[in-house]
Amino acid sequence: MESLRKILRLVKPYLNRLILAAILGLAVSGLNGALAWLVKPAVDKVLVQRNTNTVFLLSVAIMASFF
Q1: In whole angstroms, what is the distance from residue 46 CA to residue 5 CA?
Q2: Do 45 and 55 touch, CB atoms closer than 8 A?
Q3: Could you tell me the pLDDT band of residue 13, with boundaries at 50, 70 and 90?
């Protein structure tokens, strides 16, 4: 229990940064999931249905998710 108190004492000045890092980490994870979600229509429409018109739209959506 003493070790936990010591860790909490050391972390307390940086608590705001730790919370921000956790929130931003969740955002990055969500965006990576969104990227995988955007790739599925590309595979379905472009490779299976041979629809080349959606290549441009999906590439723009994927690049926008990176920014």
Answers
A1: 56
A2: no
A3: very high
55's tokens: 């290549």
What count of other Cβ atoms lies within 10 Å of the Cβ of residue 6? Answer: 10
pLDDT per residue as tens digits for the range 31-65: 888 877 877 777 777 777 777 777 777 778 778 87
When pLDDT is cut at 50, 70 and 90, the band that residue 24 belongs to is: very high
In the 8-state DSSP scheme, what is residue 47?
A: I
d(CA 59, CA 55): 6
Cα–Cα distance list, 47 to 38, 44, 51, 55, 64 (Å): 14, 6, 8, 10, 22
Cα–Cα–Cα angle for 28, 64, 18, rounded to 5 degrees: 20
Residue type, 5: R
